[in-house]
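== Polypeptide entry ==
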Amino acid sequence: MTKSLDLKRDDPRSHPFDTTAPSISRRALDHADLLSGDYWGELRTFLWVAKAGSLSKAAELLGSSHATVGREIRRLQDQMGSQLVVLTKNGAQLTQKGHALTDELLRLDQRLFSIASDLRAEKAEAEGAVRLGITDGLGVCFLVPELRRFSKKYPKIQVHLKSPGNFKNLRENQTDVILGFSPDPSNDMTCRPLGWLHFIPIASEAYIERMGVPTHSNIRKHQFIDSEIYSAKGAWEGWHNLLRRGTVAHYCDASISYGMMVKAGNGIGLLSNYTMMDPAFRPLDLDVHVKLRLHAVALTERLEAKPVRIVMGLLEELFSAQNPWFQEPMALTVQDRSYQERYATLFNR
């Protein structure tokens, strides 16, 4: 009768095979081939085509030729055995599998950037570039005036401001931190609630002088500036109802330009309460008030880097409810001049 050998399963040193033997303990680096195949360059070209929407634009961005880009896309499709791009007279359209590959490549691109950033600077040091997604209005009025003080304290941190192209998804904007308008439920995100952003109908003195004070009784004769940013159903319904009663004169999706169109007297706009720091604006009593909670959102793994943590803290400092403009009850005036003086300096007030 043969004896059986019982391994001590709780002993981490126990293993049924000799793990030091090269023949059964080879790492992935010991293999000569790559699982991904020989088309990393083609993947980069494909991502540029997905971003640019056409072969010619991608070629221009890559410093290559239309023929070379087309050849690399065909080779990638042949290697993967799947059509990723459909070429039409309107440009390059991604197939369903093309969209899936794009999402994976964007995640990889984000990860590679994070690795490179961490390799360039020790995580314990306050040094490096941090990509921050923030709308132009909030950036110009609150963040930009603070950057000189910030740079004096952290001279080796470069803040790279990026206008969000996607208000819901940090990763889609390829940023480290974003000042968002909703929490991000993703497991790999850290989300911290801040203060509240208030929107109300506002007109300029120039508009009121030309058209009179807008009221519920005369709203049909008034003109509005609308934006696709306010197109979602739900929070903006009061604004939509107001627009239906008047006339939309123009549209604008760039926040600073939108504010300037209202200031120039081109129409009534839906603006944040902090724009009342500019004496050219007047709030309108039209029963429309939209309140949104601000959130600082960051990739959790990027918060291991000290520069990212510091920039996250800057958002918490500037946009928390401690700032009277972002308290839950809406303010139209603020007594503490320190919350207005940098804005006034920036706009020569």
Summary: The mean pLDDT is 84. The longest strand covers residues 189-204.
